[in-house]
Write a structure and sequence with these properties.
alpha/beta; Isoleucyl-tRNA Synthetase, Domain 1; binds adenosine monophosphate; binds zinc ion
C-alpha cells in the first residue's frame, strides 16, 4: 500500500474557496503546473517564497508515493510591463537598456534563478518549458479559439472576446469577479483602442517595428500574449485537464482567470481541478516587489548585506523562516523573525544530531505512532508546515528529555521516530544541516576568519581604524565579506 492510499490530503481550492479532499485524476499520478518567473531580473525573496511553497508541496506529494509530473515554466517572452497588454516587453526593455540581446537577458536571469533555487535546496521540476520554445503551440491554440468564435483579429493582433465568452461561460469563476463590475472599474489605457472591449485580452500582438522579440504568424509578425503560454505549456505536458495549478496570489487575476477562459474556449473544458495560490511575502507592510524597490535579494540574506538585516542568514534558516508560516498566510519579513527562526532552526538541528547518541531503553514513554500521524495530519491539512514544525519541536522536547534521563525510547520506536524526523526535516521541508556541508577545510577557514575578526575588534578597540579597515577590505578582495551587526561581526563567502 502506498502512503497516499493511507493519508487523505485536503487542499484549499481557490476555485471553490474551500478545503477539498484531494483525489488525483489518475490514481497514483499527479500533474502539477506552477507559473514560473519572468526572467528579466534577479528573483527576490518574495518570488522565492512562492516557489518554495510549491517545492514543499511537490516534496510531500512525492513522499506520499505519487508519481508527480511537476511543470514550472520560464517566461522568456510576452510579459508586458502592464498586465493590460500595454507597455514594452519586460525582457526586451531590459535588453534595450543594457544593449544586449533579449536572449542574453533570459540566459543571465534563468541561470540566476536556478542558482538561487539550488542554494535553497529546491528540487528541480520534471519539465521546465519556455514560452519561446512553444510559439507553435500558442499559434495553434489561437487558431482553435478563433475557430470556436471566442477571439477576433484586428490589425494583425488577436484578442480574446471576454464578453462573448461570458455569455456561455463564466469569466470570473476563479477570482469571483463579475464582468459588469469589471466593466465599471476598467480604465481605458493607451494602446487598447484595437480591442472591442477593454476587458478583452491579447492572444497575439502585432509587433511594432522597434519590437525585437517577434515571430511570424498567420496574423502578423508579432508575439503571443502572456496568459497564453501557460495554457499552451500546461496542457501540452499535463493534458487538457490536470490536477493542480499553482502560483502566487497576485496571479489569480487576470492571469489564471484568463488561462481558464482560454482553455474552456479552446478545449471546452476547465483545465484544472485544484487551483492553489500562495500568499505574499511583505516587508514594511507592503508586498515585496521589484517594481517598487521594496524587496530583498536572496544573496543579500546570505551575505547580510542589506539595511533590513543585522547579520547574514543561511539558506536553510531563510527556508525555515518561510515554512514557519502557512503558504496561504501573508508573511512579514523582519530581522527579528529571522533571528527567532535561526534559534529555532539550530535547536531543531542540534536535536537531530543528538538522535544517534540517545540511550535506548526497554520501554517508550511517548506515543511515537500518534506523534508520527500528527506530522502527517499537519501536512494533510492543506500542507500546514507551521503545525508540522510545531510537532517537530515536540520531538525536540522529547529528545532532550531522553538525554536528561527524564524519558525513554525503545529500539523499535526509535527507528520509527528517527526516520519520521529525517523524512519531515530533510525530505519534506527540504532543510539542510548547514554544519553537514562544512568540511574540515571550511572549518579551518572559519577558524582563521574568526581570528581575523577578533584581531579587527582589537584594532578598533585601540582606535587603529586603518588596520581594522585593511583587514575588512583585504578579506573582501578574496571574497570574504564581514558584516557588522548588533550580534557582533559575521562573515560570508562569495
Ligand atoms: P514574476 O516573475 O513576477 O512572474 O513572479 C514569479 C512568482 O513570484 C509569481 O508566482 C508571483 O506571484 C510570485 N511573487 C511575486 N511577488 C511575490 C511576493 N512578494 N511574495 C510571494 N510571491 C511573490
Ligand atoms: Zn502562468
Amino acid at each position: 500500500m502506498k502512503l497516499f492510499q493511507e493519508q487523505e490530503i485536503k487542499i484549499y481550492n481557490s476555485l471553490s474557496g474551500q478545503k477539498e479532499t484531494f483525489k488525483s485524476i489518475i490514481e497514483g499520478y499527479v500533474g502539477m503546473y506552477v507559473c514560473g518567473p519572468t526572467v528579466y531580473s534577479n528573483v527576490h525573496l518574495g518570488n522565492v517564497r512562492t516557489f518554495m511553497s510549491f517545492d514543499t508541496i511537490y516534496r510531500y506529494l512525492k513522499h506520499l508515493g505519487y508519481k508527480v509530473r511537476y511543470v514550472r515554466n520560464i517566461t522568456d517572452a510576452g510579459h508586458l510591463e502592464n498586465d493590460a497588454d500595454v507597455g514594452e516587453d519586460r525582457i526586451a526593455k531590459k535588453a534595450r537598456l543594457e544593449e544586449i540581446e533579449p536572449m542574453e537577458v533570459v540566459q543571465r536571469y534563468t541561470v540566476d534563478f536556478h542558482n538561487i533555487l539550488n542554494t535553497f535546496n529546491f528540487l528541480p521540476p520534471s519539465i521546465e518549458p519556455t514560452a519561446t520554445g512553444h510559439i507553435i503551440e500558442q499559434i495553434e491554440l489561437i487558431k482553435t479559439i478563433l475557430e470556436n468564435g471566442f477571439a477576433y483579429e484586428v490589425n494583425g493582433s488577436v484578442y480574446f472576446d471576454v464578453h462573448k465568452f461570458d455569455k456561455t461561460n463564466n469569466y470570473g469563476v476563479l477570482s469571483k469577479r463579475k464582468l459588469e463590475d469589471l466593466i465599471h472599474n476598467t480604465r481605458e489605457l493607451d494602446g487598447q483602442s484595437d480591442k472591442k472591449n477593454p476587458q478583452d485580452f491579447a492572444l497575439w500582438k502585432k509587433a511594432e517595428p522597434q519590437h525585437i522579440m517577434r515571430w511570424p504568424s498567420p496574423w502578423s509578425d508579432g508575439f503571443p500574449g502572456w496568459h497564453l503560454e501557460c495554457t499552451a505549456m500546461s496542457t501540452k505536458y499535463l493534458g487538457d485537464h490536470f490536477d493542480i495549478h499553482g502560483g502566487g496570489m497576485d496571479l489569480k487575476f487576470p492571469h489564471h482567470e484568463c488561462e481558464i477562459a482560454q482553455n474552456e474556449a479552446a478545449k471546452g473544458k476547465t483545465p484544472v481541478n485544484f487551483w492553489m495560490h500562495a500568499n505574499m511575502l511583505i516587508m514594511n507592510g507592503k508586498k515585496m516587489a521589484k517594481s517598487t524597490g521594496n524587496f530583498i535579494l536572496p544573496t543579500e540574506i546570505f551575505t547580510g548585506d542589506n539595511k533590513h538585516i543585522t547579520k547574514s542568514f543561511s539558506p536553510s534558516v531563510a527556508r525555515f523562516f518561510m515554512l514557519q508560516a502557512h503558504y496561504r498566510s501573508i508573511l512579514d519579513f523582519t530581522n527579528n523573525g529571522l533571528l527567532a527562526s535561526e534559534k529555532g532552526f539550530n535547536r531543531l538541528m542540534d536535536a537531530v544530531k543528538e538522535l544517534d547518541s540517545l540511550q535506548l531503553a526497554e520501554t517508550t514513554s511517548f506515543n511515537v505512532l500518534e506523534w508520527k500521524q500528527k506530522c502527517y495530519d499537519a501536512m494533510n491539512d492543506d500542507f500546514n508546515s507551521p503545525i508540522l514544525i510545531a510537532n517537530l519541536f515536540e520531538a525536540v522536547k522529547y529528545i532532550n528529555q531522553i538525554k536528561e534521563g527524564n524519558a525513554t525510547i525503545s529500539a523499535k520506536d526509535f527507528e520509527v521516530f528517527k526516520s519520521t524526523i529525517h523524512t519531515f526535516v530533510f525530505d519534506v521541508l527540504g532543510l539542510k544541516d548547514a554544519a553537514k556541508k562544512v568540511d574540515s577545510g571550511t572549518n579551518k577557514l572559519s577558524g582563521a576568519v574568526e581570528l581575523l575578526i577578533k584581531l579587527r575588534q582589537e584594532a578598533r578597540a585601540n582606535k587603529d581604524f586603518a588596520l581594522s579597515d585593511k583587514i575588512r577590505d583585504e578579506l573582501a578582495e578574496i571574497g570574504i565579506q564581514l558584516k557588522d551587526g548588533k550580534e557582533g561581526t559575521s562573515f560570508s563567502t562569495t
